[in-house]
Amino acid sequence: MTNSNVLPQIDHSHEVIIRLDMNTSKGTISLVLFPEHAPKAVENFVTHSENGYYNGLTFHRVIKGFMIQGGDPMGTGMGGESIYGHPFEDEFSLQLFHFRGALSMANSGPNTNGSQFFIVHSDELNPQFKSQLEQAGFPQGAIDEYIEQGGTPWLDHRHTVFGQVIDGFDVLDAIANVQVGPNDKPVEPVTIISITVHKG
Questions:
Q1: Which end of the chain is more exposed for a tag (fewer CB within 10 A), N or C?
Q2: pLDDT in tens, 139-167
């Protein structure tokens, strides 16, 4: 399976890709994961998913035009742990970027990954960023994708991207558009019902 329709100019067709369905109270988001580039983050997320760790948890922080965040059993942004029993290191790749729909690890600084994650909702990028990305040495394919689809390039090499939405962008939009209260917490909880992992 290839996600070339999701990441134009960046060829992932030769890689092992894991697909999963995140079933939420707003509908299903389908994603692919990239174990070749972020093996520890993918193993962490897949194992937690298969063990039901995320079942019933909420998206505790939702910022329209930026991202939706979940994976914290406490629902506060302060909880959760990795399958390794301790925070694990960042895994950065010049093949994975914070495009719209990117699945990435939330953290509290370098090498502090646990169970929390976010999905990028941003669907536009200020054109002024183009020259900054060029000066920073971003691949042309990544720059083109950011300009066309949107995203949050300032998070690259600060958070570990390990997956990408391939279907269910309407559900991502629906979650991002819910009413929120203090600390960007949805007034009515948005819940992860289950995550189904498809290997092979």
A1: C
A2: 999 999 999 999 999 999 999 999 999 99
Global confidence as pTM: 0.93
Annotated active-site residue 60? The verdict is no
pLDDT (tens digit per residue) in 66-89: 999 999 999 999 999 999 999 999
Tell me whether residue 66 is one of the annotated catalytic residues: yes
- Is-catalytic flag, 158? no
13 neighbors 32 (Cβ within 8 angstroms): no
69 is catalytic: yes
- What CATH class does 18-198 carry? mainly beta
- The residues near 86 (Cβ < 8 Å, ≥ 6 apart) are none
Q: Of residues 3, 44, 69, 113, which has the active-site annotation?
A: 69
Residue pair 129/135 in contact by the 8 Å Cβ criterion: no
Give the whole-angstrom CA distance, residue 176 versus residue 87. Answer: 28
Angle (CA) 58-157-138 rounded to 5° is 125
Question: For residue 30, what are the β-bridge partners?
Answer: 21, 167
Q: Which of 100, 149, 159, 172 is catalytic?
A: 159
107 assigned to active site:
yes
Residue 118 bears catalytic tag? yes
- Which of 20, 96, 155, 172 is catalytic? The answer is 155
